[in-house]
Amino acid sequence: MAPRTTTPTTDGPATRDRILLAAASLLDEAAGGAVSTRAVCERAGVQAPTLYHHFGSRQGLLDAVVSHGFREHLAARQDREGGTPEDPVDAVREGWDAHVRFGLDHPETYAMIYGAVRPGEPCGVAREVEAMIRATLEPAARSGRLRVTPAQAAAEVFAASSGVTLALIQQPADGRDDGLSHRVRDAVLAAVLVDGPSSPTPAPGDGPAASAVALTAALDAADDPPLSPGERVLLRELLDRLAGG
């Protein structure tokens, strides 16, 4: 029987969602094997130009599938556990656990996206997850709880969590080190936080750096700080130096 196709359309979220669902189902069926854009188009009932209009490329489609799946996974976890924690550090801890659990629940898809990397080409999912971590940590920075900038902290948290997930995927399920993720998570948080995962105030030795990070975060959040562009550049340079020191 000839494959079913339709006239190409670029309208609305329904078409995009249909392509996403088709790609996700094919990835699950492939169990780590390759999935072609042609197969996705046939399953979704669209033609190739429609797919490329919505996602740009095959990699863009794969990124979107994983991003969509991770967001649904995170939302379902928050629903089960009563929403997002008010404390930003607790939110990062729970986000880390959700990230690892998603990878273990969908190992083929996770390994295909995060394991098949190319030099100098971060995938869209990596950028999105790192941005989510950074946004979650910004309140901690403004309250003086970070040793480093939210961007640096987010980069370290993401790098460690994705590395741990790939390591756990490679371990046999019946011999998996269930404590590895929590040990690495707490070590990374201890390195980027001023005084451990639950401290609301800077430790004495970390005061200048943490305060510089906090002031930088406050400036970034301000709509109209009372400084000229030149003053803002100079202040940021000084704050970066203090934070780095």
Automatic annotation (TrEMBL):
Q: Which Pfam families match?
A: TetR_N (PF00440)
UniProt key word DNA-binding:
yes
Example GO molecular function: transcription cis-regulatory region binding
Q: Which SUPFAM superfamilies match?
A: Homeodomain-like (SSF46689), Tetracyclin repressor-like, C-terminal domain (SSF48498)
Q: Which residues form a coiled coil?
A: none
Write the protein's name. Unannotated protein
For the HTH tetR-type domain, which residue ranges apply? 13-73
Q: Which InterPro entries match?
A: Homeodomain-like_sf (IPR009057), HTH-type_TetR-like_transc_reg (IPR050109), HTH_TetR (IPR001647), Tet_transcr_reg_TetR-rel_C_sf (IPR036271)
Q: Which UniProt keywords apply?
A: DNA-binding
